[in-house]
Amino acid sequence: MRVEVDRAVCENHGQCVFAAPEVFAFDDDEQLTYVAEPTANLTADVRAAAAACPVRAIALIEA
């Protein structure tokens, strides 16, 4: 699975950070960072993070 975040849509609400902190985080400038290709054991958390995004900025690309 590949994660893509549309930065033009993302409003940094942080719901993804709460749902999958191993994948999503905020940097020192309060900008979202993320692991584009998380390990398979994080799939459920990544799906939950995408579902929790209030502006639907997270896309999951199945390999």
Show the helix and strand layout.
Blueprint: E1 2-5, H1 15-19, E2 24-26, E3 32-34, H2 43-52, E4 58-61
Antiparallel strand pairs: 1-4, 2-3
Shape designation: globular
Percent of residues in beta strands?
Answer: 15-25%
Based on CA atoms alone, the radius of gyration comes out at: 10 Å
Low-confidence stretches: none
Terminus-to-terminus distance:
5 Å
Oligomer: single chain
Enumerate the strands of the largest sheet in spatial order, edge to edge or round the barrel.
1-4
Q: State the helicity in percent bands.
A: 10-25%
DSSP E strands, number: 4
Give the overall pLDDT as a whole number: 97
Order of H and E elements: EHEEHE
Describe the structure.
The chain has 63 residues and is of the alpha+beta class. 24% of the residues lie in helices and 22% in strands. It has two helices and four strands, in the order βαββαβ. It has helices spanning 15-19, 43-52; strands spanning 2-5, 24-26, 32-34, 58-61. The strands form two sheets. The chain has a two-stranded antiparallel ribbon with strand order 1-4. β2 and β3 form a beta hairpin. The longest helix has 10 residues, at 43-52. The N and C termini lie close together (5 Å). The mean pLDDT is 97.
Q: Could you give a short description of this structure?
A:
The chain contains 2 helices and 4 strands; from the N terminus they run βαββαβ. The longest helix has 10 residues.
Key words describing this protein structure:
63 residues, alpha+beta, two-stranded antiparallel sheet, 2 helices, 24% helix, globular
